[in-house]
TrEMBL record:
Classification via InterPro entries: DUF7983
Protein name: DUF2800 domain-containing protein
Length: 309
């Protein structure tokens, strides 16, 4: 597909959105709407400030060129780049897999952006994690926990999706909490809470100095360069692609089979949550008192266990 075709398809995808549809940036979670599309730019308007911002075609092309080198982790994007990634996921050429935008024209989920705001998605990150954890707890209560093989296919798929969403949401919040924890911890210090202890730990990660420095150091100690010089995988890829050298001659290829979450029905989850909320509201009188007594008893047992440590 040419650059002109790609730009035309992206503009068409923007124009196909329902009137008033909102997108949300993946990290800063700023909501915006597509205002208009032109030959050289797509204009967006941010909901929180009313600010209009043109997203230039050239910048989109730079982003696409970077995708040619591999998926882009959206959690590492700066606020200024987030809208470009968000809009690009409307195109049928690109998909989002575990917080990474990837070029995937053959992927059935390409163009099904997770950044399109629906009533279910218009929640904060902590709210989504809370709701997903509640759905997971309800699922584990209703289905066999220790024997996934006994689950019906739809229930097994639901379990995998919920576990994936809870893990992703928890990892994001854990990273944010980690930054605050480290601010409060000095070297060798620990923080103790009701559920456990956090300790400040330091790990060393080594990476080689630049090549000239390393080779000079080897020369000073009489170490042959051949002992440390290796094969550059990037250059090897180019050789395989540009010559008749086969991949099997220079690579040992191990095939890894894994499950991949390719879609989440947020509206269905939202509907299920509403059903749980209705059930909780119906717990009145004796049933409600019993539930509260059980929760209080659980808290007491946790406190006793912690005080015994």
């Amino acid at each position: 597909m040419t650059a002109d075709d790609r730009w035309r398809d992206l503009r068409t995808a923007c124009e196909r959105l329902e009137p008033g549809a909102e997108l949300v940036t993946p990290v800063s979670e700023r909501r915006f709407r597509i205002g208009a599309t032109y030959g050289d730019r797509i204009v967006v308007r941010f909901t929180d400030s009313g600010e209009e911002r043109p997203l230039g075609r050239e910048q989109f092309e730079l982003f696409v060129d970077r995708l040619a080198d591999g998926p882009i982790d959206v959690t590492q994007l700066t606020p200024g780049i987030e809208p470009y990634a968000t809009v690009l996921t409307l195109s049928d050429e690109y998909a989002v897999d575990d917080d990474a935008v990837t070029y995937a024209p053959e992927d059935a989920t390409a163009g099904e952006t997770p950044y399109l705001v629906s009533p279910a998605a218009a929640r904060t990150r902590p709210e989504r994690l809370h709701d997903d954890a509640l759905l997971l707890a309800d699922h584990l209560e209703r289905h066999e926990v220790d024997d996934p093989g006994s689950l019906e296919t739809d229930a097994l798929a639901d379990r995998y999706v919920l576990l994936s969403d809870v893990q992703r949401g928890a990892d994001r919040l854990r990273r944010e909490a980690s930054e605050v924890v480290l601010d409060r911890l000095g070297p060798g210090q620990s923080l103790r809470g009701r559920f456990g202890t956090v300790h400040r730990t330091t790990r060393e990660r080594r990476r080689p100095k630049d090549e000239a420095t390393v080779l000079d150091a080897l020369d000073e100690h009489g170490v042959p360069h051949e002992w440390v010089l290796g094969i550059d995988p990037d250059k090897l890829d180019v050789v395989v692609a540009a010559t008749d050298l086969s991949e099997a001659e220079v690579y040992d290829v191990d095939e890894q089979v894994y499950a991949q979450k390719t879609g989440v029905d947020e509206d269905e989850k939202f509907s299920r949550l509403q059903g749980l909320a209705d059930r909780i509201d119906e717990l009145e009188g004796e049933d409600g008192e019993q539930l509260r007594a059980e929760l209080e008893d659980l808290e007491d047992r946790i406190d006793e266990a912690l005080s015994a440590d």
